[in-house]
């Protein structure tokens, strides 16, 4: 496996731990609790969960693992701020999407070799990748894990 494989295994272990942490946090909340703001006038917990779902969904084509499952989440959770839309997906819709998106990602991750992780992702051109090979799939995994951790920290504050 070598060092590359060890780093990928560690990155996937941290990803999995953060997903499980999010499952436990968001999955244990009622519909009413998910409507709480993380701070007065700030995003609601449901918005954070939907945002994370949409960002993870966008990883599928970015990592060449398939098409997005829920592109409609972008309008409610990425392109617009919380509370700017008349309706957003429900607690149950977000829960189902969260589970399906992360299940699909994990299935793709399991099929990737450590050298696959060092290949370019779809948001970088071959020319730019040749100039900077750090713009690879593994970097996407690391940055999205950090993004997840950041928003989980916000969510924990919203529960206090």
Detailed description of the structure:
The protein is mostly helical. It contains eight helices and no strands. The protein has helices at 2-27, 31-34, 45-62, 73-77, 91-111, 114-117, 126-131, 137-158. The radius of gyration is 16 Å and the shape is globular. The termini are far apart.
List keywords for this structure.
single chain, 160 residues
What is the 3D shape?
Answer: globular
| Largest pleated sheet | none
Number of strands: 0
**Helix/strand structural class:** mainly alpha
Residues in helices, as a percent range:
55-70%
Structure, briefly:
The protein has 160 residues and is mainly α. 66% of the residues lie in helices and 0% in strands. It has helices at 2-27, 31-34, 45-62, 73-77, 91-111, 114-117, 126-131, 137-158.
Blueprint (SSEs and pairs):
Layout: H1 2-27, H2 31-34, H3 45-62, H4 73-77, H5 91-111, H6 114-117, H7 126-131, H8 137-158
Helix pairs in contact: 1-8, 3-5, 3-8
């Amino acid at each position: 496996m070598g060092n590359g494989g060890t780093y990928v295994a560690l990155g996937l272990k941290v990803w999995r731990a953060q997903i499980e942490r999010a499952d436990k946090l968001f999955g244990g909340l009622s519909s009413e609790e998910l409507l709480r703001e993380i701070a007065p006038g700030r995003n609601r917990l449901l918005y954070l969960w939907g945002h994370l779902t949409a960002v993870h969904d966008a990883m599928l084509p970015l990592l060449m693992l398939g098409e997005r499952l829920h592109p409609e989440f972008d309008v409610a959770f990425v392109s617009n701020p919380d509370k700017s839309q008349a309706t957003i997906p429900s607690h149950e819709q977000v829960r189902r999407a969260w589970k399906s998106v992360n299940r699909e990602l994990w299935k793709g991750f399991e099929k990737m070799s450590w050298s696959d992780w060092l290949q370019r992702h779809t948001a970088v051109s071959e020319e730019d990748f040749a100039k900077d090979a750090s713009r690879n799939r593994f970097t996407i995994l690391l940055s999205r894990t950090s993004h997840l951790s950041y928003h989980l920290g916000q969510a924990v504050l919203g529960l206090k």
